[in-house]
Task: inverse folding
């Protein structure tokens, strides 16, 4: 029980020197990668860059204690940073103490929500985000993020709450471009694009081993950071209007308290919930992918607890919402991390950076960080999915396009909500029209098949309906309409047999519909029978009055049901030959 | 096409004198019943009594044109009146012009929403209200309504926004009871209770025919109205503090305009949506029940249009939200109404009442109307359902109790929302854990059954999983977890066969999960195979890369799949006898 909530007790027992070496090695590589990323994502969230470092220390240690993934690397990520900017920007202006307080409070709320959902084992809520919605959301977020960072590349002032506004604002400020900033930003961006694809082959050609080349290529952003800092100093760019990171407070994260202002919490709880769910979905997908590669396991519900603890820790150490990131977890995995301890060592690395490295970052151009962000998020933009979805499923395509459209035009929060609502409505629409078929007997067999597809035997006074779906409240109304309409269409019908072979469940609404059908058919003098009811379904039906009040019988097989009720033609009894001749028995 | 949207064109063609007589007869009886009801429900909605009459004229005529039920009687109903009071009370004080404007605007918004949902054929949205939620909501509303009317019976001032507050308010004002009011209210209530059960048998004993006795008993409220008016005049109760209806403007409904104030509309749209959906569900249930009795049909989507038109008409003629009511529709049906024209004749009856009858109602005690309401709504309170639900389904019980609890403690709107949310969460929770089984071959057959329930044959390097559910985004994550965990549990597994015999659909999320499973199993050197894929599912899968990239084969039957992949034991090939001996072929 304790191990379920504290996975560290499990892997900690077998921790040894070999594992320590692997974890340390991975931690060094992830630390090098994480420093520029943390600064950049904090910038994207509208926060001072150092906040990104703060959010990469204590949260990692807490995740190491409570998380179930061996290789997930937690910290600030692009989409969550954008969502933080959107939520905090709605309650305060960037750069104010209130804005920072809002970001910290978002981390707190999100942490509490994640932990509570985890303790309630409510990870299933993440199912509300279908793949088309997630991919649409990430594509649109990528476009929004890249667009929002262009101003730093151009060295201009621009804003906008949605994509058309952002583009308009950029276009109208294009005259004030700072060429020195552009001279930093464009090469940095091109270099980083090249690093993604071209650096590894180049390093291989230089004679590095495959794994070493791959790892070294991950240090590309650090090289860009170092080179642009050097350029700023060499060409005295600070005086030429290039925006720099500037002074970063040196030292470990301060202890901060999230706000307890109820008015603020009321404004932030919806964005915090969306941040929690999006963050959880992103994190758990990454964790599952990596765990499967080594045939390990994660527990989604405990992941909620782990991420919750990480976010609460972030709130108390001056950070903002964090989650498991795709790129850095993959690097952690490839670098050979064996246990969550690697994350804790990364945290120590980042802490050392805040103690000793921050003065070096004074001259880092903002444009370099913007270039890092743009290159990272453009790889998230996926333009192939819409076409694939269109071919595969129009409903999924619709949910995808709604998500992209609303996210671009009305922002990230409404985008997620619209996507979830669209998926759910389409699902409910389909669920409200389940499949059922009028069936008849395949001649000279005991099988019953759809009358529309097979040449089968039926009699006018018996209507056999096979229901291909569990009866729940979403289709209970349909069931009533369907059965009663089919009966209304056939004035000769005296018996209805519902074939329950595929009915896995009947909820209270389904039961009530069956009772209503029974009652209404009874009013019209029509018998209602059931056949092939599954054991568990029958057990529950027996606990009710339904079977007793049934205006007909429950038959073990459809064949028996059909044979027996076909005999009741409402005509005077005839000889056995009469029925045999008609195939009734 | 035109007939679909104007059902009057259908039944109007065959209208004749016989039908006219039946409809007129029914209209007279419904009119007599509707007058006190309309006055009472307007009182419940916090509106002047005459508004109830206004809401019973034009809406009935519009429903007769656009509605599809032959016998539904539209007008003010108890639950919708309570919801109107709650919504209008949130934006204005009772008795003000703003309050009336809010009620009219609610009718307008609700009418537009219903009509739009109808034109979009979105009647399926009513499925969101499960039977346990509806019955919980109606029970709790009945308790709230009855409690709210007690103050009129006692002749005291009391209020409260939720049930505990109402009870507290009544208790603290109990000292100021007006005994004369009580002397009217209690006998009226007892009389009306007796009328419900005892009047018909008494009339039968007096020698009336069965149907005549039943119809006469429905006039009970009119008798109560007449007797209490007489008592007021006879004992001069107006001077003794008994609250009376007072002056009612004489004449046809005025033409009114709903508000176009966006701030007001923003406050009212959520309650208007809830009023629309609750009203639609109530109405369509009644209409379906009555239609089934005569083997007639209604079209739920066109019913939305009909009710929408009725509500828009109500908004333009000084009324408030209306819907089809259970009691009056049943009376209309029993009285022999044949077509919606009966509703139009009822409207004429009510119009005549507003022209000539209103002066007679000056001395009608409010307590009589309150007694009418209490007796009507207490029959809606259903105390047996919770026990039945508890025995049948704990999830449905939970949704029922949540709805009752939230409605009583936080009001009708939050009650409905909480009920819908609870049902949906429980549904999603169940949908996220569908049924699947590890299967093995029943010896010497081609059948495959659950290994836990049957004695079947399996081999350690092949895992066969039968999935008993469509693969949608709600269970896509489960599928990944389930398959990968089962594989992680069995280190010997080299092949996984997914048996798709019960998979009716695979949406884009399900497809992506299958691709992820394929990819991850491939990483571990494990083959993934499908068997018994249904035709339509296979057709769609073929449009994707999935089948091509599948790390295994698609087999027509599970038997073929098992026979073929069992041969790949990973051991050096052995003789055919070896496999035969092990039952592998």
Result:
């Amino acid at each position: 029980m304790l191990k379920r909530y504290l996975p560290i007790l499990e892997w900690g027992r077998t921790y040894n020197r070999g594992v320590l070496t692997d974890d340390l090695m991975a931690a060094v590589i992830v630390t090098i990668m994480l420093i520029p990323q943390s600064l950049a994502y904090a910038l994207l969230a509208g926060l001072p860059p150092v906040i990104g470092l703060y959010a990469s220390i204590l949260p990692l240690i807490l995740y190491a204690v409570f998380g179930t993934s061996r290789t997930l690397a937690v910290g600030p990520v692009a989409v969550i940073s954008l969502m933080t900017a959107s939520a905090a920007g709605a309650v305060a202006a960037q750069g104010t103490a209130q804005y920072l307080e809002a970001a910290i409070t978002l981390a707190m709320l999100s942490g509490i929500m994640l932990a509570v959902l985890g303790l309630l084992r409510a990870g299933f809520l993440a199912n509300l985000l279908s793949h088309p919605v997630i991919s649409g959301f990430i594509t649109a977020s990528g476009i929004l993020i890249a667009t929002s960072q262009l101003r730093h590349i151009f060295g201009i002032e621009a804003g906008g709450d949605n994509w058309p506004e952002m583009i308009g604002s950029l276009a109208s400020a294009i005259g004030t471009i700072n060429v020195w900033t552009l001279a930093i930003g464009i090469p940095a961006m091109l270099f980083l694009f090249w690093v993604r694809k071209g650096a590894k082959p180049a390093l291989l050609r230089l004679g590095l081993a495959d794994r070493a080349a791959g790892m070294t290529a991950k240090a590309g952003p650090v090289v860009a950071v170092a080179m642009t800092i050097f350029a700023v100093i060499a060409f005295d760019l600070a005086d030429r209007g290039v925006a720099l990171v500037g002074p970063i407070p040196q030292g470990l994260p301060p202890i901060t308290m999230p706000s307890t202002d109820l008015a603020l919490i009321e404004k932030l709880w919806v964005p915090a919930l969306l941040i929690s769910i999006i963050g959880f979905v992103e994190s758990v997908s990454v964790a599952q992918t990596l765990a499967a590669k080594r045939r390990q396991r994660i527990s989604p519900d405990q992941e909620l607890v782990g991420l919750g603890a990480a976010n609460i820790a972030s709130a108390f150490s001056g950070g903002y919402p964090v989650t498991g990131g795709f790129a850095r977890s993959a690097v952690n995995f490839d670098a050979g991390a064996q246990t969550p301890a690697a994350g804790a060592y990364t945290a120590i690395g980042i802490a050392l950076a805040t103690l000793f490295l921050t003065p070096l970052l004074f001259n880092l151009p903002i444009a370099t960080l913007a270039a890092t962000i743009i290159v990272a998020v453009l790889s998230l933009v996926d333009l192939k999915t819409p076409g694939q979805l269109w071919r595969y499923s129009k409903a999924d395509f619709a949910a995808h396009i709604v998500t992209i459209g609303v996210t671009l035009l009305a922002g990230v929060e409404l985008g997620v909500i619209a996507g979830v609502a669209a998926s759910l409505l389409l699902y409910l629409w389909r669920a409200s029209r389940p499949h059922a078929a009028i069936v008849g007997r395949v001649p000279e067999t005991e099988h019953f098949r759809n009358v529309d597809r097979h040449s089968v035997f039926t009699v006018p006074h018996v209507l056999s309906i096979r229901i291909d779906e569990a009866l729940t409240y979403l289709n209970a109304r349909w069931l009533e309409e369907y059965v009663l309409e089919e009966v209304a269409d056939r004035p000769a019908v005296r018996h209805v047999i519902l074939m329950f072979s595929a009915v896995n469940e009947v909820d209270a609404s389904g039961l009530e519909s069956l009772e209503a059908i029974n009652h209404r058919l009874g009013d019209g003098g029509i018998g209602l029978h059931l056949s092939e009811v599954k054991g568990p379904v029958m057990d529950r039906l027996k606990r009710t009055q339904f079977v007793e009040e049934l205006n007909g019988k429950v038959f073990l097989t459809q064949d028996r049901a059909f044979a027996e009720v076909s005999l009741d033609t409402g005509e005077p009894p005839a000889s056995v030959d009469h029925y045999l001749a008609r195939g009734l028995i």
Chain B touches chain A through 68 residues (CB under 8 Å). Residues 145 and 235 of chain B are 29 Å apart (CA to CA).
